[in-house]
């Protein structure tokens, strides 16, 4: 009887381990290569300003500060997919001015890219739709009705339930890595809190890339 119990335990443990590793793409142990991502905007629409990850001045309630990178423009810039994947959720939020903005989450195995604060999203996107790198996701959102200021909140994270957003810097393809470094070298020092947050991934997000 005891032997049978032990065999049963071994079978359950094996199923759990094999299941976690090979059956559930949301598992931390899912055998997937590190995702390679691109910046979520085209080369000819560079942002005018950037709010780094880990910023705690405007995001004092988030445990590690700003949990993504914000890209800002003064025109309705197109937001592009940073990686291939499948649309998981499309959610709307109403801001204090009663203006609706949208968040689109796209999953690629154990990774997830979140495009948050969109004025609108492509109508071809719905839950389960396939997305390719560079496909248009939507248009950056305009938080102030009287100002042509646009903001995209963008995050790379894991698709499994636990796991903070990741510092995306080591995930970029070489072209995007060069572009974001050039942008931050140029725009970072103009950012009002640059002294406190000199890195694109600051504070708790510095080097948090896995
Ligand atoms: Zn943000």
Notes on the protein architecture:
By secondary structure, the chain is of the alpha+beta class. The protein has two domains: 1-31; 37-205, Distorted Sandwich (Glucose Permease (Domain IIA)), CATH 2.70.70. It has two helices and nine strands. It has helices at residues 2-23, 174-187, and strands spanning 49-51, 69-73, 78-80, 85-94, 100-108, 111-121, 130-131, 136-140, 150-158. It starts with a helix and ends in a 23-residue tail after the last helix. Bound molecules: zinc ion.
**What is the number of domains?**
2
CA-to-CA gap between the ends? 44 Å
**N-to-C SSE string, H for helix and E for strand:** HEEEEEEEEEH
Shape: globular
| CATH topology name of the largest domain | Glucose Permease (Domain IIA)
Structural class assignment? alpha+beta
Unreliable sequence segments: none
Indicate the proportion of strand residues: 25-35%
Helix share bin: 10-25%
Named once each, the bound ligands are: zinc ion
The CATH architecture name of the largest domain reads: Distorted Sandwich
